[in-house]
Amino acid sequence: MNSKQMELNEVEVWDGNTCNAQALRQASVDVVAAYPITPSTNTVENYATFHANGYVDGEFIMVESEHAAMSACVGAAAAGGRVATATSSQGCALMVEVLYQCSGMRLPAVLCLVNRALAAPLNVNGDHSDMYLTRDAGWIQLDSFNAQNAYDLTLMAFKIGEHMDVRLPVISNQDGFLTSHTAQTVRPLKDEVAYNFIGDYVPVNAMLDFSKPVTHGVQTEHDWHFEHKAKQHAALQAAFPVVEEVFKEFKELTGREYNIVETHNLEGADVAIICLGTTYETATIAADELKEEGIKAAVVSPRLFRPFPLTQLAQKLQNVKAIACMDRSAPGGTVGALYNEVAGALINTEARPVMRNLIYGLGGRDITVHELKDIFRDLAKDAENGKITGKIQRLHGVRGPELSFYEL
Amino acid sequence: MSNQKVIKNLKTFSTAAERFEGSHVLCPGCAHSIIVREVLNATNDNLVVGASTGCLEVCTAIYPHTSWDCSWIHIGFENGSTAIAGAEAMNKALRKKGRISPDTPEPKFVAFGGDGATYDIGFQWISGCFERGHDMMYVCLDNEVYANTGGQRSSSTPIGASTTTAPAGSTSYGEKRNKKDMLQIMAAHGSPYVAQVAPNKWKDMVKKIQKGFATKGPVFINAMSACTTEWKFQPHETIEASDLAVDSLVFPLYEIVDGTELNITYRPKNIVPVRDYLAFQPRFKHLFKPENEYLIDEWQKRVDKYWEYLQRREEARV
């Protein structure tokens, strides 16, 4: 590294975008190509400031669109170095084509995805529509509950994606505004500690290695395409032990524990809420407060959204009687994706819990501790009766008459 | 800057294809392969090549085969330019960081795209790359049609051509609009060097490619690529079709340096009537019907006017 080191306090007050930018700086990313979009803009703004002041020594290019940002990242990664970008919502939608190209070419890029609703109607606030949009793009996906998570996971994203067993791109998700714009206390690593944790980038099939010409992005027919996709699937599955190993190393370094499936109060729990992002922490407060009422409530969240931890979730949830899967994305004519995934994980298990699907928080609508407690109370009734006492799917928090599109 | 490759004669030049092999499945008579060989043969420097989705890409990198003995990448239809810009940025970054030694010769970054990838779907990406000033060459293989998908019109398709999406019929003479003037548009981006080339005028082409490689910044080359399949001439007639294009001035050979200085690089001794160019290609066959013949006159007038314009620009040095 030829760049200036940054003196950081033991505890900093950073928002999630600053966390992303600091992680990118400490990872000494070689090429950042980006295009601004709310609420991820501050990630690249902060990074631009670091660049302007000599704290990063790679190339920073502000391209003309998110599609170009990811295209430049793919070209740069194939050339043989570390790349990253950030986006949200429509920008993510514009990138989607290239996300598939990036993972198909097995290029370990990092995308800081600050989750936001997809238009129409246009809405800049947070929900998980963009995360869901990318779910089959072949990227590893990590999910943050707060700013500290965003910093830690964006750092770890490089180490996971660049692992020789994986070599895949990684999305580091965080909730738009709730995490990205809310200043929280964050304990950063020192620059050299962070860099050494990630390690030097090891190029594989680099276009800039002229001793061995390489062809990236070939065409395949039915004779090979299926095998390529099978290998990509295998590489995603191979990420599980790598993620575990990286989480373990990170815990040894920082004392901060990360798990492939995060749980709160799961032991002996009768009911559980399964959710993603910041809702996890809100739900833990609700679960704790319900102890007084004698409701044994747990909160469960897959820290790894892709590859989806089907086996781990099935194991964790075998004693839970009633579950609410909380989907923060418009269902689009079916149940929410998280409900679908969790149902897929549990369908073959012995003790199949009853499951509700709650669509909530679209376009940044809040979910409160009070509401989550009500959801847990409903679940407690389900657990007692051994069946769903209301409707399977509910659009929770939508104004007007109660809406459900999946009833039995 | 590396030493410029010395090219003695056509025979040695044509057999110097060390990096684009013949093992491709482009149509017999396809000008793409001739142009690509001429571009790659113009230098001995290391190359990082990008290709947009199109005939060139699908015919030269079908797994597990490749025709490319150089660094090569394809991403999508629209972003070949940006892929190469990304690779160029990585080269800069790694040199800055000392991970590529300064003694390592600088490679050349080249992106190839068809006219669809250039004039239409990839236009924004190319514009972005040129505005940012990446040190790269973009070569448009301009066959005036979406050939890879079977002959649909693009914004490079000339007026009167019959295509599958702008077919000539009892009430239509085919494509209704004039070809987009891509070279002027790219010159207006402030590119330090843009040029129009044709594979038959190989000396002119090599000179321009070498000039482009020696130029720092984004260089745009528009290469006329006669398409045997869609222009519907015989595979052995590619060079003849190209000769007719440049000798009729339908495809004039010129360059623009620094956005303003225009040089005409080839003046035909005997200018061929546009009628001969059109008559050679069955895609224009219907223009020779009595009700359409006025279009041939209009073609000639337009070509004459543009040639006049180019000469005046050249004289004026502005």
From TrEMBL, chain A:
InterPro entries given in the database record: PFOR_II, Pyruvate:ferred/Flavod_OxRd, Pyrv_Fd/Flavodoxin_OxRdtase_N, THDP-binding, Transketo_C/PFOR_II
GO molecular function: oxidoreductase activity, acting on the aldehyde or oxo group of donors
Pyruvate flavodoxin/ferredoxin oxidoreductase pyrimidine binding domain ranges (all copies): 23-247
SUPFAM superfamilies: Thiamin diphosphate-binding fold (THDP-binding) (SSF52518), TK C-terminal domain-like (SSF52922)
A Pfam entry, by short name: POR_N
Biological-process GO terms, alphabetical: carboxylic acid metabolic process; response to oxidative stress
UniProt-recorded name of the protein: 2-ketoisovalerate ferredoxin oxidoreductase
Automatic annotation (TrEMBL), chain B:
Keyword Oxidoreductase carried by entry: yes
CDD domains reported in the protein's UniProt record: TPP_PFOR_porB_like
Domain of life (superkingdom): Bacteria
Membrane-spanning segments: none
Region (Disordered): 150-175
Signal peptide extent: none
Gene Ontology biological process: small molecule metabolic process
InterPro entries: PorB-like, THDP-binding, TPP_enzyme_TPP-bd
Domain named Thiamine pyrophosphate enzyme TPP-binding: residues: 53-222
Low complexity bias locations: 154-172
Keywords, ordered alphabetically: Oxidoreductase, Pyruvate
Molecular function terms from GO: oxidoreductase activity; thiamine pyrophosphate binding
Name of protein: Pyruvate ferredoxin oxidoreductase
